[in-house]
Amino acid sequence: MKRLSLALILCLSAFSIFAGPHIKWDKTVHDFGAFDENNGRVTCRMTFVNDGNKPLVITAARATCGCTTPFYTKDQILPGQSGYVTISFNPIGRPGRFEKNITIETNGNPTKSTLTIKGVVIGSSNTMRSKFPVAAGPLRLRTTVIPFGEVEKGHTATAYFDVYNTSRETVSVGWENLPKYISVSGNRAVAPGDYATFAFTFASDLTSLYGIVDGNITLIPNQLQHGNNVNISTVAVVTEGFGKMTVAQREKAPVIGIIPENIDLKTISRNSAPILESVTVKNFGINPLKIRRVYTSDSGITVKINKTEIKKGKTTQIEVAINPMAYTGKTINAKVIVISNDPENPTASFRILAELQN
Fold first, then answer.
1. Do residues 143 and 134 make contact, with C-beta atoms less than 8 angstroms apart?
2. What is the DSSP letter of 274?
3. Residues facing residue 353 across a β-bridge
4. In whole angstroms, what is the distance from residue 83 CA to residue 57 CA?
5. Which of 11, 123, 159, 350 has its CA 20 to 30 A from that of 273?
6. What is the pLDDT of residues 36-49, one digit of tens each?
7. Which stretches of 87-230 are DSSP H helices?
8. What DSSP line would sit under 242-267, residue for residue?
9. Max Cα separation, the chain?
10. Which of 282, 297, 296 is nearest to 342 (CA)?
């Protein structure tokens, strides 16, 4: 008797699963694979069966993005009958790998189903030129600059760099000439028509420089094919952190002064020998003034500071050499940056001005 009761319970339980409308999908994921953007829309069909005992009705089909359009029959699907949902994807302007979800709502069990389409769009030349304007062999790049922004000394910063593979072959991406303060991570193998994002980390502790720290690294689209190498510029601004200074510490902080504020050479001959000048750096504060860096981006100017730590009330000299023959224009307007531990004015500067005559 007990065995009969158990069998009856199991039969009733099985029957209750399929009582009412019940939707059963043949598959819930469709992979289009790789296809050309120029081919336009792609479409797939997802089929299902109503294996319940009452009519099934699809009440809604919602996609996660406007590029994906589902179509479905609004007729009742009787028990034992099949139906389908057609899903269309528009690849125009959407190169790279994609994955889209469509939510199907019904009057049955389950009330909601999720269908997924995915694939890789091989971008057209027009799309690539607008979104990835820089060519690098089989790759396209958004830019040739990796900007890290301001990085406080002792901290790190991360910047992301995107590449796109326009070919139908996997491209192995290599990087060379990375300085010790920059590291890179990311998938080096880029599938056909796919994106890859590389994460670059700038470690300020691994460079002695303050202020603008720039350089060039090399992107190699295929590790054994150096003909398509591209130089990528990196730039960061290393700053000193003063946020944790107390009021008392600020009252005793060093104060930088640069005398004179500008070097005005008036009119000089373009063919003259290098001109030597100097400016005075004075500490008007209490604690020692520490000069972190003195530099200029002007190739016609060289600078050197005599002393990098200046006590209260003391001075040092920045020696400046100006080479008129390095200039092709009519004027010199060079900026020299002086970075120090003055919390109120950590980046001071002075200019070198002159008019050139032949």
1. yes
2. P
3. 264, 333
4. 10
5. 350
6. 888 899 999 999 99
7. 125-131
8. -TT--HHHHHT---EEEESSEEEEEE
9. 118
10. 282
Query: Which residues have CB under 8 Å from 334's CB, separation 6+?
Result: 296, 298, 300, 301, 322, 351, 352
Give the strand order in the sheet containing 309-310. Answer: 262-269, 347-357, 331-340, 289-295, 309-310
Q: How many residues does the chain have?
A: 358
Closest to 130 (Cα-Cα) out of 139, 140, 121, 115: 140
Q: Say what the pLDDT of residue 12 is.
A: 43
- Percentage of the chain beyond pLDDT 90 is 72
Taking the C-alpha atoms of residue 320 and residue 307, their distance in angstroms, rounded to an integer, is 14
Give the integer Cα–Cα distance in Å for 172 and 179: 21
Token pair of 307 as six digits: 């002393």
At 240, which helix (H) or strand (E)? none
Give CA–CA dist 75/59, Å, rounded.
10
| DSSP one-letter code for 306 | S
CA atoms within 13 A on the CB side of 5: 2
Query: What span, in angstroms and rounded, lies between the C-alpha atoms of 94 and 123?
Result: 7
Backbone angles phi, psi at 132, to 5 degrees: -130, 80
Q: State both tokens at 55.
A: 């009519």
Q: Are the C-beta atoms of residues 323 and 291 closer than 8 Å to each other?
A: no
Provide the pLDDT for residue 278: 96
Which residue type does 93 have? G
Question: Is the bond preceding 260 in cis, omega lying within 30 degrees of 0?
Answer: yes
